[in-house]
Amino acid sequence: MVFGDMGAKEELLTILPLKGHTRGEDIFQDFMEFVNKTQLPLFKLISIQLMVLQQWWTVLAGSLHCANRVKKDFLNYHCIIHQQALCGKILNMKEEMDVEMKIVCSVRARSLQRRLLRAHLEETGAEHTDLLLYTFVRWLSRGKFLAKFSELLPKIKDFLKLSKHAKYAQLEDYQWLLDLAFLTDLTDLLNDFNLELQGKDKHVINMISSVNTFKSKLQLLSSRLQHNDLRNFTHMQIELQSQGKDFVQLDSARYEEQVQSILFEFERRFTDFSSIEPDASYLCFPFGPSIDVDCIASKIISMFHLDSSAVENEILTLQNDIEIKSRATPGMNGEFWNLLPEQKYTSCAFNLTALFGSTYLCECAFSHKKIIKSSTDLQ
Questions:
Q1: End-to-end CA, the chain
Q2: Do 124 and 233 touch, CB atoms closer than 8 A?
Q3: What is the pTM of this model?
Q4: Which SS3 state, helix, strand or coil, does residue 76 take?
Q5: 47-50 and 75-78 as β-strands: parallel, antiparallel, unpaired?
Q6: Which residue has the higher pLDDT, 119 or 303?
Q7: Left, alpha or beta for 125 (phi > 0: left; psi -120 to 50: alpha)?
Q8: Integer angstrom CA distances of residue 1 from 8, 73, 161, 219, 239
């Protein structure tokens, strides 16, 4: 919600349960029933954001159907955080994950082995005394799983020898261990970026800036890998040193390819937000030298279905308002909008400010519900 002073507030309005069918038409019908029941002013709705995760095919299909029913009236795009999570899933890491999961599950599935491992880790002074399980549907699970396993790997190898577990040749394979270290470092970076995107009241402009920053970081990593520069890959440096290998011996091409594939996936998945970026720049500072009035006007008209002559007139009037120019500076980040007459200048700014970048609040509600339900079950 955007108020008269250009302040924005983000709240969870409702969660609509689907007790019967979950087809697209059912989602749309339940949504419209809620709109009619609460007399929600649908004409004020600016955009619709969808959640997309591959395993939630029913919700995805329904959401897309719902969006198709209203896409002529509202701007619709995908949640930034979900898009980021999907980008990370293209990493080619099946071989490493399969071996790790077999080892972890073989220990965690047997209470005796789990107690013995805990005792072993305590005796050796390890900071952590248990292994994590991997959960596919959780955004940060894979990165945490890899980080914990890599940290405890030397002690896990000793434990497997002492307890006469099945032998895993990969744990002594130099290339496999180096691949594991690379994947651990890269998923750490992806997790840090995911956490940066999380949080309430995240404006879409800030989130687009974060995405662009991370894409630039990936380009920098790719360039450094070409020169065998591992300053951003701590686990790889440690693994090379433990194996007595020189950085020059590193086959960096295979790792550069992985980084480039993620970068390509980011470019592909975030095209929706790339098209919004010029409008976001206009909102932050409408007097910049790179502002193309004709381009901005056409985009705003297309995005929000506003009257073309009114939008063009507002932008041109603002561009030539000497008083407003004297009060605006590039560092204000759009704060000067609340100083302008609402009836004269802020119709475009209202629409742009109303865009939000993620379904974080909805995800939080599901997480809280899960915790409450689990606590109730335990009682």
A1: 39
A2: no
A3: 0.80
A4: strand
A5: parallel
A6: 119
A7: left
A8: 6, 18, 60, 36, 50
